[in-house]
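Hi R.,

Here's the chain you asked about this morning:
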Amino acid sequence: MSKVKKCLFPAAGYGTRFLPATKSVPKEMLPVMDKPLIHYGVEEAIDAGLDEINIILGRGKSAIEDYFDKNYELETELQAKPKKLKLLNPINDLIERGTFTFRRQGAMLGLGDAINKAQSMIGDEPFGVVLADDVCETGSEDGVMKQMVEVYEKYQCSVVAIMEVPNEKTESYGVIAGTEEESGVYRVSEMVEKPKPEDAPTNLAIIGRYILSPDVFEILDRTEAGAGGEIQITDALKELAKDGKVVAYKFKGERFDCGSVDGYMDAMNHFYTKLKNS
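And here is the predicted structure, written out as tokens:
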């Protein structure tokens, strides 16, 4: 049985909802408290045993590479200020625990294209995908990726994380339908990208966490661009689902959509309150 060791972070987008800040600062580097968005996802992946971190970048995203690299000049400057030097411990810990590989997406043709660009990084192995926009808080539970690894090891097929959303919000998500195999785990029979409420098969929406089997690459190679001229990962997963090779997992925890201003502020308030009460 193949272990999941690699995790992919698509991080090439422009982050237009946060302009003008994201004109020069990658959206993934926007801070939630004292850590950037992408830090939370990488920490979640490494805690789940996915310590080979692969990041797909776009133009102007070099700050992400710099963040996951040691800054010896800064550490030397802070040697005489041990309290401030200690503030670097969270990122230095991730750098020590993981290995990091970066490549450019080039033309941005959607999530499916970004994932497909990672073939040479991933090889013939199952792998996780984390969208840094989605910050997940699980409290005393295992992180979402660790929960999903356990599901993958049991079912040995692609896994998508899902959550219930209000019916009127299905147009913002990919939505699944399927048969519940056990509590919170569904064998997917249908996936619909951003359906109108009256067309949605359920209110079970896909969020930015996946574990994918490597056969998804062969499908992505021949998947044509769909809505908005983009290659959708949903189209490839729908093909795998026809053969019963996709399960959906209703994760334990709370998800903050930090791709939106409202969700970003909700995350900021949540983590601030958590810190204040700790």
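One quick note: The chain is about 35% helix and 25% strand.

Cheers,
M.
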